[in-house]
Specification:
- The structure is a single chain.
- The chain has 180 residues and is an alpha+beta fold.
- The chain has two domains: 61 residues, Transferase, Pyrimidine Nucleoside Phosphorylase, Chain C (Transferase, Pyrimidine Nucleoside Phosphorylase, Chain A, domain 3); 79 residues, no CATH class.
- It has six helices and six strands.
- Strands 1, 2, 3, 4, 5 and 6 form a six-stranded antiparallel sheet that branches.
- About 4% of the residues have low confidence.
Length: 180
């Protein structure tokens, strides 16, 4: 599947399947330009997203997500992220570039899908910047139940980052299901 073909199909009013939407999400995260992403999102918005498209994009977002440990400071609205990488990895190069990042939080149940997207810059917390409050926040970090590493732990860079969202957007979609 090509992103331009997907944009054309959606612009023409075609609904995507769950699988097509999942693949479109992969293209958005790995290959698409900002113009292509904007065209796809505008076409979906104009057509109206289907339940299958929302589910497929949610699956695609999960596929692209990096499992991390995190904490949230309700007062400052900063998110603290514990990120792990190896010194020569693509992830390390990405983090060193001080990227504009998107943190997506979503919740779904049988009848509703809600999401919030924060856009901002990841900033590494230097050791000399750590305050008792920052350390306490890091202590509140949510950790996965297990961790799997391809490298030995001494070969890993485990660092703390602060994400202060510069822009927040969100929405809730109510899924209307017909009686079966």
């Amino acid at each position: 599947m090509d992103i331009n073909d997907t944009v054309k199909r959606v612009t023409d009013g075609t609904d995507l399947t769950v699988e097509e939407s999942r693949e479109a999400a992969r293209l958005v995260f790995e290959e698409a330009t900002e113009a292509q992403i904007g065209a796809l999102l505008a076409a979906l918005r104009a057509k109206g997203e289907t339940e299958a498209e929302i589910a497929g994009f949610a699956q695609g977002m999960r596929d692209a997500a990096i499992p991390i440990s995190y904490g949230f400071d309700e007062t400052s609205r900063d998110v603290f992220l514990r990120l792990v990488s190896t010194p020569d990895s693509e992830k390390r190069a990405f983090l060193d570039s001080r990227p504009e990042a998107r943190v997506v939080v979503y919740e779904e149940d049988e009848d509703m899908y809600s999401s919030v997207v924060g856009v901002g810059t990841l900033r590494q917390v230097d050791l000399d910047e750590l305050t008792p409050e920052t350390i306490a926040q890091y202590g509140e970090t949510q950790r996965p139940l297990f961790e799997i590493w391809a490298d030995d732990k001494p070969d890993l860079d485990i660092e703390l980052y602060r994400f202060a969202p510069e822009k927040l957007t969100g929405r809730t979609v109510v899924v209307e299901r017909g009686e079966t």
